Structure to design on (395 residues):
């Protein structure tokens, strides 16, 4: 931890610090520099001050005793539709991470009438399944759910806590990390665990231009959220193991400041994330009606269709059809991209698909770096031929 300080008696008010600051974080007030909230403590002003009037103060950080925090905890979300599949994907990843350090994997469930879900989780190699089951927890209330998970974290001291990047998880995880004054990395696409138990949380940053590796070296637990369909799900075992631990609801949870008046379930929409086969249209399509052939090909293959972001921006379709960093992550068995260049913001959210077929006229298009089958040709020639052949095969 560090901060920047200005030594007023040395400062001549030359303003070099202000003109050199890349974040616009320095304002000259009464002829002297003052730092605002945009300061990233990068130290450029310190280097550029000719009078050495700006200094960086390092604050001593009291490192946590890492040996007191072990194991990996997965928050497994339950809704009226059952266990959210992202929980099983996180358990799968947690097992991979835990094995080299000899950690065990635990789960925490919060809700009402959820014992059958805890029993189902016994088939996934967990050492403990903590359950907070109470009628007042039937619907998600961020403060109440956070108090339950906080209670179990204080009881079990996990080194790592994984949460699905669902609407619920995105609300819960930051509340929890704030309560423990520790770090949280959202939307991780890869996770690694170092020998010293630091979790390397990898995710695209700066508009997808870099893959940032983020660590939480001084505090525990380490929180990460991961999107649905990014990790491989845990494999269900026939034998049931793992102790189910019915936890007492923390005091005050039932008197939450928020109460749920009524709940109207949103009709479940089919999501492109759940499709086994996807046909994707990109900016290589010349007009909106050309999406019809993407839809037709998808339908003949028994799959769904999706697009890149530019087509959403043109208003040809809606964001729930968009693959990518600002859209959905997909992992179908087969994906056919048509007129898609393969920008990192797109490929990082589909490159784990089992079979990737790319159609593009430009042989140097980056999509071919991730494709298993490259068709360097005009989509207006290839797609009608494919449609024709599929129709013939079906008659
Ligand atoms: C912060 C941020 C977030 C972003 N999030 C997303 C996101 O979630 N999803 C996303 O998709 N993008 C996202 N983008 C945009 C991304 O950078 C690309 O601009 C976008 O993916 C490009 O879409 P495209 O491949 O359809 O278009 P283009 O890059 O224009 O590619 C069109 C391709 O079609 C080919 N082509 C043209 N005509 C034909 C033809 N007749 N037959 C075959 N091929 C043809 C061309 O050779 C070209 O390669 C994001 C960008 C930023 C900065």
């Amino acid at each position: 931890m560090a901060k920047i300080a200005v030594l007023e008696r040395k400062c001549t008010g030359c303003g070099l610090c202000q003109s050199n600051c890349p974040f616009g974080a320095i304002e000259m007030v009464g002829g002297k520099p003052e730092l605002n909230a945009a300061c990233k403590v990068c130290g450029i002003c310190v280097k550029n001050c000719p009078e050495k009037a700006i200094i960086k103060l390092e604050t001593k950080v009291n490192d946590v005793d890492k040996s007191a925090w072990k194991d990996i905890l997965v928050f497994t979300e339950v809704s009226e539709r059952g266990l959210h599949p992202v929980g099983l994907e996180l358990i799968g990843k947690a097992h991979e991470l835990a094995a080299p350090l000899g950690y065990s994997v635990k789960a925490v469930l919060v809700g009402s009438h959820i014992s059958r879900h805890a029993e189902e989780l016994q088939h996934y190699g967990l050492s403990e399944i903590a359950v907070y089951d109470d009628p007042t927890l039937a619907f998600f209330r961020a403060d109440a759910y956070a108090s339950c998970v906080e209670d179990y974290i204080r009881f079990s001291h996990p080194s790592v806590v994984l949460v699905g990047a669902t609407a619920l998880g995105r609300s819960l995880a930051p509340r929890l990390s704030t309560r423990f004054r520790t770090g949280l990395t959202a939307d991780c696409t890869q996770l690694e665990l170092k020998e010293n138990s630091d979790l390397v949380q990898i995710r695209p940053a700066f508009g997808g231009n870099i893959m940032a590796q983020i660590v939480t070296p001084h505090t525990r637990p380490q929180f990460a959220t991961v999107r649905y369909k990014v990790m491989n799900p845990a494999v269900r075992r026939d034998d049931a193991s793992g102790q189910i631990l019915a936890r007492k609801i923390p005091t005050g949870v039932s008197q939450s400041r928020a109460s749920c008046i009524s709940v109207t379930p949103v009709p479940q929409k089919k999501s492109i994330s759940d499709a086994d086969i996807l046909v994707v249209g990109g900016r290589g399509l010349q007009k909106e009606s050309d999406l019809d052939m993407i839809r037709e090909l998808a339908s003949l293959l028994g799959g769904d269709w999706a697009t890149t972001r530019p087509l959403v921006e043109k208003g040809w379709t809606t964001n729930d059809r968009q693959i990518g960093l600002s859209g959905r992550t997909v992992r179908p068995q087969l994906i056919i991209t048509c007129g898609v260049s393969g920008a990192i913001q797109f490929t990082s959210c589909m490159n784990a698909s089992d079979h990737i077929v790319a159609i593009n006229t430009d042989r140097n298009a980056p999509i071919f770096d991730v494709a298993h089958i490259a068709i360097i040709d005009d989509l207006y020639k290839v797609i009608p031929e494919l449609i024709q052949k599929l129709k013939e095969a079906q008659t």
About this structure: The CA atoms of residues 288 and 315 lie 9 Å apart. The domain at 272-394 is CATH 3.40.50.1220 (Rossmann fold). Residues 207-208, 282-284, 308-310, 322-327, 339-341, 343, 345-346, 359-362, 365, 378-380 surround flavin-adenine dinucleotide (CB under 6 Å). The mean pLDDT is 94.
